[in-house]
Amino acid sequence: MQNFPLRLSTSEIIEEDRRSNAERRRHGFISQQSFFSGVPYSVLEPLVALCDELNLKPGAVLIQPGEKNRHLYLLLDGRLKARIDKTDSEGGFPIEPGECTGEISVIDGEPATANVVAEEPSRVLAIPEGVLWQEFFKIPAIARNFMRLFARRFRDRNRAMQQALEQQLRWEHLQRELSIAQDIQAGMLPTGESLGGRYPEVDIQARMTPAYAVGGDFFDTFPLDDRRICVALGDVSGKGIPAALFMVRTMTLLREEMLRHRDLPTVVRNLNGKLCRDNARCMFATLIVGVLDVETGSFSYINAGHNWPVFGPGGGDFDFLDSSGGLLIGVDANAEYEAAVQQLARNDVLVLYSDGVTEARNRGRELFSDERLRSLLSSVEISDAEQTVRTLESAVREFSAGCQQSDDLTVLVVRFCAR
Q: Most exposed of 47, 166, 245, 320 (fewest Cβ within 10 Å)?
């Protein structure tokens, strides 16, 4: 019995023609890609029919590192990005329409080394590696186009790597400059015997630990005459180089004013006025500055918006000194300041510090706090200023348990030793 082909209805014939025309238009569009430049449509059409067309949503992962890749992907429209480390990293290489991806793993047969992710809705032609080698590369024009695209991608990657290397070199240069700035800043702060060695009646030690490469905290001690010594500690607004520069300016002006006038309210008023001028960045500082008479033990001081100092008679039972001396400096050129006086006796201890101490945080986001500071100092036996500084630093370090701190930590301890 002879079998005859089934006849198609008119509607079925129309639908078949519509599909055929749509397929031809799709193939015609694909043939316009630079990958197929110079290849006749009639040659290309049966090859494209062997491939799949993928529609990717934004964020869709096309290739993952470590996995075998068996396709060369030609981006028809949209945008892809190849990232070396992870899918959400900022760096990487953009892949624009007409470009390919996956070529390295198809060529060497090794697992992919990069993430390829769709950055926007994208259409991709997936060419199986067997079809690529056995069909597409038999056509000289396609092989030549592929090598051109591969060479251009290689140059683009080399250029990107060169830029990344230059950025790394600039970063290393900046780090070296910051290290030099840190050394210069540390060199400006008095150390060792320069803190109070000229006066056997006092034992003074201080230390500043910046939260970053350079900090905005500062301290200073310097003699005014044979019996008076100036002691100061401050905290500049902001972080990094700008804060360090403002700190240098503040320290320089403070010494200049202190050695010129020596009257504390006048000194701080003049210092404040000068810092308010030419202050385009509106930076400011908190400051506690005092003058200690080593013969009488009289300590007159002004607290310009800084943390309250802690005082321990005989080195024990510490408590905060009420020291509302005025507004922080660098804000209001007309601000007025008043001095307070604290009488020191033998073995009395005065602790000045920055808010990097009391506002140090642990992993539970708790603050070290004023009360913990007061209780700590009251509970330990204090033999000298250096030991007090070390004890306080160690307590803050243990409390924070390695958490990165956002503020500099500065402590200055004055122990009065006169008989």
A: 166
